[in-house]
Amino acid sequence: MATVSDLLQELAVRGARPAAELRSSLGVSGATLSRLVAAAGDAVCRIGSARATAYARRRSIEGIGGRVPAFRVDASGSVAPDGTLHLLWSGQTWWERPGEDRLFEGQPPELEDMAPQGYLGHAFSARFPELGLPLRLAEWSIDNQLIALARRGEDCVGDLIVGDESLQRFLARPEAESLPQDLPDLAQNAFTVPAGSSAGGEQPKLGAYSGGRHVLVKFAPPGETASARRRRDLLWCEWKALEIVAAAGVGAARGQARDIAGWRFLETERFDRVGRRGRLAVLTLLALNNEHLGGSNGWTAAAPALRKAPFRLSESDARNLRWLDTFGQLIANTDRHLGNVAVFVERDGRLRLAPAYDMLPMALAPPPASETVATREFVATPPSSSNLDVWPNAAEWAVRFWREVQEQPALDETVREFAAQAERAIGAMAERVGPPSSHSHGSPTRTTGGSR
Q1: How far, in Å, CA of 150 to CA of 27, rounded?
Q2: Sign of CA dihedral 405, 408, 410, 414
Q3: How many CA atoms lie within 13 A of 371 on its CB side?
Q4: Considering Cα of 361, then 363, then 369, then 370, what sign does the dihedral take?
Q5: Mode of pairing for the β-strands spanning 160-162 and 67-73
Q6: What are phi and psi of 249, to 5 degrees?
Q7: Using the 8-state DSSP alphabet, how is residue 21 labeled?
Q8: Cβ atoms of 303 and 320 closer than 8 Å
Q9: Which residues contact 131 (CB under 8 A, 6 or more apart)?
Q10: Is 434 left (phi over 0), alpha (psi -120 to 50) or beta?
Q11: How far apart are CA 391 and CA 194, in angstroms?
Q12: What strands lie across the sheet with 79-87, from one edge to the other?
């Protein structure tokens, strides 16, 4: 006869199981299964009701337990409960929410984006040794991420907060105002102890509250080595690229470049923040990919997938996403991964394309920790059926970008020479492709700008 141990073993090996499957695999009646579940107590989690009832084995993480409360912060800064995250064996998570329970094979997509990552995440463990987390992010498990979010997750990307401790920190946290003249000291400190949000990316950056808005500040230090000059030049190029995207009618993060005490800073507004304490729900395509997009490879491939259930990205936003992918290729942005594009998530599940960010010619970036630079020849990738309608217009704006780069005398000569060669390559390809009027659509759909 089946025992509680048999039930727990079955759930540990195979994850959440419908009641009917459990009865069959254990060889027991419905009444016996109910008795086994009752005897297992809190070790078994009941999911759903009636014929949709399923069972899973609960797991517990030291310091946060097996149930983690979730909260949402709205645009005004008000907090409301948003259900409970139940941690299950086999890496599963059940998000019990009023009227919208969901079982995830891993973490909910929101938690993927919220976890410490990139430059700002590398020193997370050193900043909070009391959490006992591995020093290297690459060695973190899902449990390590949950501990970080539940105990030090008060300033994560998006509008979600998990865990009572992180909620209390958010409610008690003052937003200290930073001034532009503070940036060199903040940047110098961030070299050794990065502080701020969990926003990803390997470019050195810090988070700040300045001028009544939350900003991310990328920075490049003083220095006259080739790599130091190139890193400063790339920040100027990123600022210019965002301006060009906005001028083309596609939403882009509002930015400002500053030179202070030999440092160069690029300050961009966070588009997941509203005022001092308000927040908006956003997700990167990387977080959505495994759960909803079926492993889409690239922005253009993701665009049609985002038009389908369970999400509905508008046709104009899907087109602008393809335009951004094309423009990015034409300005030598070789870092167009799914984590570098995001969407706003509305309460009814609709998606809106978030402002563009991290748009710069990464082909010019020096290798990590290198003092030398190498400049490869730019190659304009020919359009395909997936972007032929947007390619001519994106090419026009890319040419405008490269001309702005050539006309900026403060940039290194190697960067301006690359810009000239890129303009020529795009022009040669454009002659073969033809003008925008020969294609079904010639311009991006104008969207409202935003901040990140």
Answers
A1: 39
A2: positive
A3: 3
A4: negative
A5: antiparallel
A6: 95, 10
A7: H
A8: no
A9: 63, 125, 147, 148, 151, 152
A10: left
A11: 39
A12: 102-104, 93-96, 79-87, 67-73, 160-162
Contacts of 381 (CB under 8 A, 6+ apart): 329
Amino acid at residue number 294: G
> Helix or strand or coil: residue 178?
coil
- What local confidence, expressed as pLDDT, does residue 197 receive? 47
CA–CA distances in Å: residue 386 to residues 50, 223, 301: 46, 43, 8
Residue ranges for the chain with pLDDT beneath 50: 193-198, 200-201, 439-441, 449-452
CATH number belonging to domain 4-56: 1.10.10.10
Peptide bond into 382 cis (omega under 30): no
Domain span(s) for CATH 1.10.10.10 in the chain: 4-56
Q: Regarding beta strands 213-220 and 17-18, do their DSSP bridges make them parallel or antiparallel, or are they unpaired?
A: unpaired
Residue with tokens 């009444």: 31
At residue 219, the pLDDT reads: 93
The length of the chain in residues reads: 452
What distances in angstroms separate CA 355 from CA 167, 283, 298, 299, 446, one per listed residue?
A: 27, 12, 17, 14, 12
Alpha carbon 310 to its chain centroid, in Å, reads 19
DSSP state of 293: I
Q: In Å, how far are 160, 238, 378, 398 from 421, measured between CA atoms?
A: 45, 19, 7, 13
Q: What gap in Å lies between CA 68 and CA 56, rounded to an integer?
A: 16
pLDDT at 348: 79
Identify the DSSP state of 28: -
Q: What is the pLDDT of residue 90?
A: 85
- Please give the DSSP secondary-structure letter assigned to residue 295: S
Peptide bond between residue 310 and the one before it cis (omega within 30 degrees of 0): yes
What six digits make up the tokens of 141? Answer: 């498990």
Contacts of 106 (CB under 8 A, 6+ apart): 91, 92, 93, 142, 290
What per-residue confidence (pLDDT) applies to 120?
66
- How many angstroms separate the CA atoms of 447 and 452, rounded? 15
In the block, residue with structure tokens 């865990």: 163
Residue 229: closest CA among 262, 203, 201, 258: 262
Measured CA to CA in angstroms, residue 30 lies from 53, 82, 232 at distances of 12, 32, 68
pTM of the model: 0.89
Angle, to 10 degrees, between the axis of helix 30-40 and the axis of helix 19-26?
100
Report the candidate in 26, 30, 23 with the shortest Cα–Cα distance to residue 3.
Answer: 26
